[in-house]
Amino acid sequence: MSVTTIATVTLTDQDKSVLRSAAYGAVSLLAAAGAKGNAQASIALTSATGVVGHVLSAKSRDIVLPGRTVAEFAEHVFPNLTAAMAILERQSPAEADNFRSTVLVAVEAAVHSRKGAPSPVVNAMARKIADALDAVY
Hints:
Number of helices: 6
Number of strands: 2
Distance between the termini: 30 Å
Shape: globular
Strand order of the largest sheet: 1-2
Helix content: 55-70%
Order of helices and strands: EEHHHHHH
């Protein structure tokens, strides 16, 4: 098991998997809801800085996104978003804020990458993602 320690934040492989699955799962949920800016959203995730940036930009095969329907998929992603915030909040509130803002920038990139207003379905999914990020508070 490898452990990453950067700036007093120590994350296990499982912690890193939760963070990656949560962030990339949020982007995938938006795609399932009809958002078209997934490439921009992925760029937002890999452009993160700090501990979060190191974790999200690492080459890994540990991103777990199970489910055949949006509902099944959401049942996995939303708890991971909340768990990722809890993991980071325990060790570094600044990195928790960094993760939250990184995911929300990715959401904005996915939602607003095309001309015209996003659909109500996409807006609703974006709100649910934000709610899952804030559920730890």
